[in-house]
């Protein structure tokens, strides 16, 4: 008998914001920017504790970059996540999912999609979510806490049975 699972999920503004942070800071640019920003803070602090080594010039460039990378960038992500959450109606809708080994169907209040698994780019599991990517950058977010243990088990079983599907499951 073919496995299938049905469940519903709704992403809150807080979850959507967390997802945006995760998306940025799990990419190489987010990691590199943060490391360089922390390094710049160290250079600025080093100047205050030992100004003779760096000369008389205050490390203004380092301070500006440190503020941008470690303070302003997270604030921009937060602001954009809040703005997009309220601007894009599909994000705030409750999503109803139906999955089997042949396709996935997603229904919201204003849309409905039914995709064969060949159209799915990959499925990734994180600590809090399942991400079903329809391209390299666009994904459906399924909050794992919205699924019970049986639904989680069936979901993983279905995903693992799909041939040629890129997966990253825990």
Detailed description of the structure:
- This protein is α+β, with helices and mostly antiparallel strands.
- It folds into two domains: 4-11 and 90-168, PH-domain like, CATH 2.30.29.30; 14-87.
- Helices cover 49% and strands 23% of the residues.
- A hairpin with a 2-residue loop joins strand 2 (95-100) and strand 3 (103-107).
- The longest helix has 28 residues, at 60-87.
- It is elongated, with a radius of gyration of 21 Å.
- The mean pLDDT is 91.
Topology:
Blueprint: E1 4-9, H1 13-25, H2 28-49, H3 51-54, H4 60-87, H5 89-92, E2 95-100, E3 103-107, E4 112-116, E5 122-125, E6 129-133, E7 139-143, H6 149-161, E8 166-168
Parallel strand pairs: 5-8
Antiparallel strand pairs: 1-2, 2-3, 3-4, 5-6, 6-7
Helix pairs in contact: 1-4, 2-4
Class from helix and strand fractions: alpha+beta
Can you identify the CATH superfamily of the largest domain? Pleckstrin-homology domain (PH domain)/Phosphotyrosine-binding domain (PTB)
Distance between the termini: 25 Å
CATH fold description of the largest domain: PH-domain like
Q: Can you tell me the overall shape?
A: elongated
How do you describe this structure in short?
This protein is 49% helix and 23% strand.
Q: Descriptors for this entry?
A:
four-stranded mixed β-sheet; 6 helices; PH-domain like; 8 strands; four-stranded antiparallel β-sheet; 170 residues; alpha+beta; 2 domains
């Amino acid at each position: 008998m073919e496995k299938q699972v049905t469940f519903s999920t709704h992403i809150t503004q807080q979850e959507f914001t967390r997802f945006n942070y995760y998306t940025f800071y799990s990419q190489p640019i987010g990691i590199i920017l943060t490391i360089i920003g922390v390094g710049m803070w160290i250079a600025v602090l080093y100047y205050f504790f030992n100004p003779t080594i760096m000369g008389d010039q205050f490390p203004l460039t380092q301070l500006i970059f440190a503020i941008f990378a470690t303070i302003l960038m997270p604030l921009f992500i937060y602001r954009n996540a809040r703005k997009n959450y309220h601007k894009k109606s599909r994000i705030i809708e409750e999503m109803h999912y139906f999955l089997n080994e042949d396709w996935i169907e997603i229904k919201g209040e204003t849309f409905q999609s039914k995709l064969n698994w060949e159209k799915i780019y990959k499925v990734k599991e994180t600590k809090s979510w399942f991400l079903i990517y329809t391209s390299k950058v666009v994904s459906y977010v399924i909050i794992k806490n919205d699924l019970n243990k049986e639904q989680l088990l069936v979901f993983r079983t279905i995903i693992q049975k799909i041939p040629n599907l890129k997966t990253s499951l825990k």
